[in-house]
Design goal:
By secondary structure, the protein is of the alpha/beta class. The protein has 10 helices and 6 strands, in the order H-H-H-H-E-H-E-H-H-E-E-H-E-H-E-H. The strands form 2 sheets. The protein has a 4-stranded parallel beta sheet with strand order 3-2-5-6. The chain is globular and about 50 Å long.
């Protein structure tokens, strides 16, 4: 069978973009039937003319940006932003030039209250990812303007495996679980070895019910330093 352009895009996303440190631990997931079903679904959606966010080359950007052996903190999101130009493969983050969404604005408010950091004018969290903050959505794709449209298609099983890989690491990691969805998803994390921090979701609908004032960022750094790991510089570069 001749390879189509979409086949090539998904092949590159799987085989090239995925960070090297993740390939072997996740090899069984890529070989599993559910992943073939997920790939077929995504190809069919694209063939039907539907726009999928983020671009295929960024589906695994969270893993590409943060190697497994460098993960210090895990922040879990649910699914990508579904607006034009917003999603770029890191949960809660948007590319340079895109206005920070409300949930990210509340994250910035908590950073300011917790660590005294001024609120950034952009929403690009790439520098966190480069320092070992795994910014992982549970579902890695979405149809434009259709929130949660790719839930239940297989991504959740894949990202469960990602979390299990981190949970199995020898070095202690901080899990920031914001909202009931994230807390259910990572319920199996070994809290005797890792620090599991729970709070309400930073959405404007729930941030005042326990997210604002949670002080997760200072707690994370205190835990990392206590275990001989370099703390995260949560201040974001001005340029985004």
């Amino acid at each position: 069978m001749n390879q189509t352009p979409d086949d090539e895009v998904t092949r590159k996303s799987r085989d090239i973009v995925l960070g090297e440190s993740w390939k072997a631990p996740l090899a069984a997931e890529f070989a599993a039937p559910y992943m073939a079903d997920l790939r077929a679904f995504l190809l069919a959606e694209r063939a039907a003319g539907k726009r999928i966010f983020p671009p295929a080359k960024l589906w695994f950007h969270a893993l590409d940006a943060t190697p497994l052996d460098s993960v210090k903190v895990v922040i879990l999101g649910q699914d990508p932003y579904h607006g034009e130009g917003q999603a770029h493969g890191l949960c809660f983050s948007v590319p340079p030039g895109v206005r920070p969404p409300p949930s990210l604005g509340n994250i910035y408010k908590e950073l300011e209250a917790d660590l005294g950091l001024p609120r950034p004018r952009h929403g690009n969290l790439e520098s966190w990812a480069q320092q070992g903050v795994l910014l992982l959505n549970s579902v890695l794709t979405v149809e434009m303007a259709q929130a949660a449209s790719h839930q239940g298609r297989g991504w959740e099983r894949f990202t469960d495996a990602v979390i299990a890989c981190v949970n199995a690491q020898a070095q202690p990691v901080v899990f920031m679980l914001w909202g009931a969805y994230a807390q259910r998803k990572a319920a199996f994390v070994d809290a005797s070895r890792h620090l599991v921090l729970k709070a309400a979701h930073p959405s404007p609908l729930s941030a005042h019910n326990g997210f604002l004032g949670c002080r997760h960022f200072s707690q994370a750094n205190a835990f990392l330093m206590a275990h001989g790991r370099t703390p995260v510089d949560w201040a974001l570069p001005d340029a985004g």
